[in-house]
Design goal:
alpha/beta; OB fold (Dihydrolipoamide Acetyltransferase, E2P); 14-stranded mixed beta sheet; 7 helices
């Protein structure tokens, strides 16, 4: 008896690099893109979905699980590629289902015990194993994109709202972020070594979607992320226009900061993600192992909770919550509203 799915790799093309033009028009393709070899000499190849529309247009890339335990992006890609009709698509969608394959297989965040892949770009093809991995991923896949959505979640022991990191001084990235309609948008210039920053340096407008919590699927966030991505694709003229997602407008933050403990103990953080807090509001309490209160932590300023610790066991210097400074009437929001007419779009 054949086991369902047992022939999955027989129906998948093994390639050395992404070559969109070689793939059939009006169809979905499944690829395994070879990057490196493991210690047994076996190829390490990334699973990639490609959907070529019947009409020419841009190539939009979506990357999931750049950190191996950040999984909410995977079903976003599955649902997007399952629901988009290639006969109505202009351009091409490329979904890298798992970027950090070693981390995913070992159920951990990092590429290897000491390497955060999102701090290694553009990598080095003559460097160490992690640098080669980053360089080849960039060269063999990402360089072929015209736009990029990088899908993440919170890390171990933390919870995130559904928020977007974007450089709002870049009009294209700003529009991609605002059309996504997340709970929060953080105006954030990408740090050195990040995939988003490296893509931007290559002229590829990019945003980071932080879709909730690690090592789980969260249906509400997955649905919202999918709806926002489809809104951007519609704005690019790649898909028929859709009704806007019926959710509140996002809170826009100009900056953010993490609050940290100055003592170890058992930590309880009171606000939920996406809650607003006032200056001097008690946001967390730390007790010792005997249940006696050691510290109470107050918000140093008003803002919105972008993310928080959900791990009660805290050492000195442990994270408490990620506080965003709200900026009403952000210039990027004003520009977007001014451009919202039938002829305005990203592309």
């Amino acid at each position: 008896m054949e086991i369902p799915g047992s022939n999955i790799f027989l129906r998948t093309h093994r390639v050395e690099r992404l070559d969109v033009e070689s793939l059939p028009i009006g169809q979905r393709s499944r690829l395994l893109v070879h990057l490196v070899h493991d210690a047994l000499g076996r190829p390490v190849a990334l699973p990639v979905l490609v959907l070529r529309g019947v009409r020419p247009g841009p190539v939009v890339g979506l990357t999931a699980a750049l950190h191996g335990n950040e999984l909410n992006g995977i079903p976003v890609l599955h649902r997007l590629f399952d629901r988009v009709d290639p006969q109505q698509l202009r351009g091409t969608l490329v979904g890298v289902v798992v970027v950090n394959l070693p981390g995913y297989l070992s159920r951990q965040r990092l590429l290897e015990p000491r390497f955060d892949l999102n701090h290694l770009f553009p990598g080095n093809d003559q460097g160490n194993a992690a640098q080669v991995y980053a360089a080849r991923f960039l060269d063999r896949i990402v360089r072929h994109f015209n736009y990029l959505f990088d899908l993440h979640t919170a890390s171990f022991g933390r919870a995130n709202s559904f928020y977007v990191r974007a450089n709002l001084s870049d009009d294209t990235a700003a529009r991609m972020a605002l059309l996504q309609r997340p709970q929060i948008i953080l105006d954030h210039s990408p740090v050195d070594g990040s995939l988003r920053g490296t893509a931007a340096s290559l002229g590829i407008p990019a945003v980071t979607l932080e879709i909730g919590d690690p090592q789980r699927f969260q249906t509400v966030y997955i649905k919202r992320a999918l709806g926002g991505i489809r809104a951007v694709l519609s704005d690019l003229g790649m898909m028929p226009k859709r009704r806007p997602v019926d959710v509140p407008e996002p809170v826009v933050c100009s900056t953010s900061r993490w609050l940290y403990t100055d003592h170890g103990g058992l930590l309880e953080v009171f606000p939920e993600v996406a809650d607003r807090v006032e200056q001097d509001e008690v946001v967390a309490r730390l007790t010792n192992i005997f249940g006696e209160v050691e510290r109470e932590y107050r918000a140093p300023e008003g803002g919105v909770v972008i993310g928080k610790s959900v791990d009660p066991v805290a050492t000195t210097g442990g994270r408490i919550l990620h506080l965003g400074r709200i900026q009403e009437n952000h210039p990027a929001v004003i520009r977007l509203r001014a451009s919202q007419d039938p002829s305005a779009s990203i592309g």
